[in-house]
Every structure is written in C-alpha cells, then in structure tokens.
Amino acid sequence: MTAIPYPAAIALEAAIRAPSPHNTQPWRFEVTADRIDVLLDPERVLAVADSEAREARLSCGAAILNMRLALRAAGHDAVVELLPSRDRPEHLATAWIKDSYRTTPQDGALARAIRFRRSNRRPFTDRPVPVWIRQALVDAASMEGGELALLERPADLDALAALLRHAEHAQSEDPAFQVELCRWTAEGARDDGVPAVAGGPRPAPGTLLTLRHYTAGGRPPERPYESDPLVAVLGSSTDTSLAQMRAGQAMQRVLLTATTAGVSASFLSQPVEVATTRASLRGLLGGRACPQAVLRFGYGFTAPATRRRRPEAVTHTIEEVSP
Ligand SMILES: Cc1cc2nc3c(=O)[nH]c(=O)nc-3n(C[C@H](O)[C@H](O)[C@H](O)COP(=O)(O)O)c2cc1C
Predict the structure, then answer these.
(1) Which of 89, 94, 151, 162 suits 132 as a labelling partner, its CA being 20 to 30 A distant?
(2) How many CA atoms lie within 13 A of 120 on its CB side?
(3) Ligand 1, from 202, 267, 302: best to mutate by most atoms within 8 Å of Cβ?
(4) Is residue 218 scored above 80 in pLDDT?
(5) CA 212 to CA 318: how far, in whole Å?
(6) CB of 81 within 8 A of CB of 56?
(7) How far does the centroid of ligand 1 lie from the alpha carbon of residue 266, in Å?
(8) Is 246:61 a contact under the CB 8 Å cutoff?
C-alpha cells in the first residue's frame, strides 16, 4: 500500500467522514501529487433503496465538500471539475490541488466540524432552533447552489409526515429492501454499515415523524420525540448526475453549518427513495425543486460515531515518473 502524499492525505481523511446511506461509503479515490479523482464504487450502491445511485452521488458530493474544506483549512485550495470524463460515468470529479489559500474563519470552523458531525437519530429537546440558525442553514445550501425549504407551516409538516409514513410502509413491506437493510445493519467487526447503537429509541405513540429502524431486529425502548420537529427538504433545480453531486455538497455544507451551531441533524429519506412519494414531495415544494434529501434538525444529546474504511483502503496512489 503506497502512502498517500500530503496534502491529498488531509483531504481524504476528511472525505471519508462524509455521510452515506446505510454507511455504505460508495467512493474510491485515485491520487497523484496534485490531483484527486473521485470515483463512484458501484459495488456499494444500494441496489434497492438507491437503484439510480442518486444517494451515492449525494454522498460523494458530501465527500467532495469535505475535501475542499480540509484543503482550505490547511492553506491549500481545490479546483473541482465535476463529471470530467464523458465515457466514464463512475468518474465523478477531479480535484486539482492548489497551493496558497488564505483560510477564512468560516472554512476553518466548517472543516473542524467534519470530525464531530454525525447522524443523530435520537429524540431532540423541545428547544426551538432560532431563526438566525435556520437562516444560516438556508444560506449554506444556497452557497452551493442548493435550495433548503424549511417546512415551518404545520400543514406542510403534516403533509411530509404522511408521505413519510406511506414511504416507510412501502419499504417495510418490500422484502428486497429489508434484506438490503439487514445486510448493512448486521453487527460484527466491520468498518461500514450502521450499528444498532447508532439507532434511535422507538417513538412513543403520537410521534409525528416515522424514523427508519436501524436496530437490526432488536426492540429498543420507547421514548417521546420532540413535539414540534424542524424538518427541511433540500432540493436541486434539475435531477441530473451533476445536480445530484452539487446537491451533495449543499447537503454537507448544511450539515456542517448545523454542527458548528450545536444543532443535531438526521435524515428522513424514505419519501425521496420511493418514486411516488418523491413526486408528491416535489408537489409540496411547489413543483420547482427536485427533492434530494429530507433532514430533521434540533438540539440533541451526543450520538455515537459510525466507523469508516481508512483512506488507504479506498485510495489508489499513482506515483508519477518524472520525465
Ligand atoms: C443520501 C443519504 C440518505 C440517508 N438516509 C437516511 C435515512 O433515511 N435514515 C437515517 O437514519 N439515516 C440516513 N442517512 C444517514 C446515514 O445512515 C449515515 O450517514 C451513515 O450511517 C454514517 O453515519 P454518520 O452520518 O453518523 O457519519 C442517510 C445518509 C445519506 C448521505
């Protein structure tokens, strides 16, 4: 195994901390002294929940934002070209590493948050997320070309909750979906998948939102969740591979911005994974944006970190021979 050169090593240490559905980590990297190529790993795309690899591209987009921020925090920069190879669709991006960048306090804060961000599926407190933080989340999405719609009207939240129940029911009745979920929640000495400890308690009766069960067949205790949840839908203007990778960067900037503000987040992806509910969700957003991710925000207690494959295990370092 060849060592990853500096500063690519810093970028990849950050990249692998990106979120991914069922913690599949659907990425690979190729590295030279001044370039990182990001590749989609088709073996790690969820064939049932994510048959078009849309969520895998969101995850790789999140990894790209982590890389950009980590390089900036270290005084470098990256010029990123998305989908650089027409005839190689799994080649998602090339990041050209540049020297000399004057780090901003915001880059530094977001880069530091990469290590602490995690999906928190546990109940949040009833303390509302202040307006200025809500606005910061919306601004974070738009900085990366995304649109974050906060469902602040009770009618919109109720409509989302109904779509969530419908999609969760469809997935729970789908044996292929359940087999796939079991595969990624099976315990053991592994550095991917979602361990039972990262799952949340069972929602007490009357809870509005239906969370995905990550407890591998166990029956966790029942607890009340927050009574007035803050839910937002991240959308993109189109649904191309390019738009999905941009949306992944927007998603990650939103999640890191929340982390820097002490706000926890978790995903509610069921309605975007089921085609019929995704279409209805788009209608809920006024038909403009294509829904890419549904996120829940609030003040929570700490959530455990999930494991990752080491950068060396997912990276091929190419040593360039000088002429
Ligand atoms: C596109 C996408 C969809 C996801 N959907 C869900 C979901 O529906 N429910 C959930 O609890 N977690 C969901 N997750 C969170 C992942 O399970 C999580 O990122 C992964 O287990 C790694 O854990 P971490 O986020 O704490 O680092 C999703 C993540 C991504 C990137």
Answers:
(1) 162
(2) 22
(3) 267
(4) no
(5) 40
(6) no
(7) 7
(8) yes
